[in-house]
């Protein structure tokens, strides 16, 4: 006879346990102490077994019957319900260990093993450990697109559109890493492609006309602040490199005899070494500043410490002191200026791109161009330095005529 709610609530054992059957192998085991435990008895491969379904009222009658029916379905399929319960328990324990935070930490370690730059690792760690902190302790298989979107939209609404897109991308990388290491079956960020607003394009300010650029270079030559700041700005213009490359230039990287500066792979955006031809003007500037960095590995040490490089803020501050606002010129703007002017003058675009260390997607073409364009790059950097000198002389003549 099937059990009723009334019978279960009023059931009480005295000296011995009481067993109340609900049919189909399910019964309620009532202990003398008052506990009411659901049990399911069945036979599998000729052996009798008992499976626990929890206690009443935590597991109500209806739920206990659902568990019984599921167990009987497994038996009909030739499966042992007890074995299935053990496997589910193991899977749940494994999922609790494979949290998003744990997999993200392994992903960061993988980036380090693959030789990613310190800045890339730091940026990914910040995105995953700070912005995605709410997911850290969650099993990676139990994170859904809707909750990820909620976090991304919150960041987007704060005005950080690019950050939101980067977070989606790096979280997707973690989920894909979990998939290939057999700890997840899908990437919930895939469903969010196109869900975020495109970042507003923020072009770095740059002077891209020849005559104003010449006046800028005259102002830099006459800068009366810290000498390494003046040289940093001069080398930014002459070498077409990034501010970070110039700030971290080391004495061991410069060869006066070969007129080259080798930027090591770990400092390059594309993780490959980049050789920079040094024009006559660049070599003169470096020889003049060289004695000031004696005792330091850095060519352009900080004003405050010879062990630390100049900061990018210091370079931009020098431009402000020269009278150029952030909307007129920035430290990054020298590359844009060189690229724009040289392209407009008809110089070979591929040579310009090689000088700027822009990566070619084709591996063979990249290696070929690096070898092929070296003589052309030497000529390009020298022509560029000579053009700057010409614009500076023109600026002087016009100033004196005025």
Tell me the strand order in the biggest sheet.
Answer: 1-2-3-4
State the name of the first-level CATH class of the largest domain.
Mainly Alpha
Which range does the strand content fall in?
Answer: 5-15%
Number of beta-strand segments? 7
Mean pLDDT: 86
Going by helix content, strand content and strand pairing, the class is alpha+beta
Low-confidence stretches: 361-369
So how many helices?
16
Total of domains: 3
SSE string: HEEEEHHHHHHHHHEEEHHHHHH
Termini separation = 113 Å
How would you explain this protein's 3D organization?
The chain has three domains: 5-84, Integrase, DNA-binding domain (Double Stranded RNA Binding Domain), CATH 3.30.160; 100-192, Orthogonal Bundle (DNA polymerase, domain 1), CATH 1.10.150; 210-401, Intergrase catalytic core (hpI Integrase, Chain A, Orthogonal Bundle). The longest helix has 28 residues, at 374-401. The protein contains 16 helices and seven strands. The radius of gyration is 35 Å and the shape is rod-shaped. The protein has helices at residues 5-10, 61-76, 81-97, 100-113, 118-131, 145-157, 161-180, 210-221, 227-239, 243-247, 280-289, 312-321, 333-344, 349-355, 363-372, 374-401; strands spanning 18-23, 26-30, 36-44, 47-55, 254-255, 260-263, 274-277. Helix 5 crosses helix 7 (161-180) and helix 6 runs antiparallel to helix 7 (161-180). The chain has 402 residues and is of the alpha+beta class. The strands form two sheets. The chain has a four-stranded antiparallel beta sheet. Mean pLDDT is 86; it is low at 361-369.
